[in-house]
Specification:
- By secondary structure, the chain is mainly alpha-helical.
- It has one domain.
- The protein is about 85% helix and about 0% strand.
- It comes from Aggregatimonas sangjinii.
- This is DUF3278 domain-containing protein.
- Keywords: Membrane, Transmembrane, Transmembrane helix.
């Protein structure tokens, strides 16, 4: 046997990845589940953003620079996160599940790596900007609210941040696990 024939023989012996029975259906279901969860997250973020915009105009935040800066940081962080999720849903929808396994895996790997960057880099920065905006508002809250209500806002916001942080972490872990399952 020549070297070429040996190489060709070894090449032909390699196992080819086989698509599981109803693999495309399972993939579509998982993608639909991820899209649904991203859509729900966008609804919650949009609702929060709308409430902040209404609050911004209700209290005439544009008249007090620190209040305006704080609320704009919070609203801006939400708008950026909504835009990221909107574009991410579009990318997920553009995945072509009808291509061969190797191409689909490449598409999914690219999407998966992008989501990891979003979750591990961009999301913490967005949460940080949102928190900075809130902290900027605290002196105005302290000056204009009773001490009891101010303490309630501070304590409840810390509790809410911890609970929301745990919820976001759980959702991120679930999404990344689902995407990792799709890759394999």
């Amino acid at each position: 046997m020549t070297e070429f024939e040996e190489l060709q023989s070894e090449w032909e012996k390699q196992s080819q990845p086989e698509a599981p029975i109803d693999g495309a259906g399972r993939v579509r279901e998982k993608i639909a589940s991820i899209q649904q969860k991203q859509g729900i997250a966008n609804i919650v973020l949009t609702s929060t953003g709308i409430i902040l915009v209404i609050f911004f105009f209700y209290i005439s935040a544009y008249k007090v620079q620190t209040v305006m800066i704080g609320l704009l940081l919070m609203i801006g962080a939400l708008v950026i996160r909504i835009a990221i999720e909107f574009f991410s849903i579009g990318r997920l929808r553009s995945l072509n599940v009808s291509v061969d396994v190797v191409r689909f895996k490449a598409q999914l790997t690219k999407y998966y790596k992008n989501r990891i960057k979003i979750h591990l880099i961009i999301t913490p920065l967005i949460v940080l900007v949102y928190c900075v905006g809130f902290v900027v508002l605290l002196p105005s809250f302290k000056a204009n609210l009773s001490e009891g209500f101010y303490n309630y806002i501070v304590i409840s916001s810390i509790v809410l941040l911890v609970v929301l942080g745990l919820f976001i972490a759980k959702q991120i872990r679930n999404e990344l696990r689902m995407l990792k399952d799709l890759k394999s």
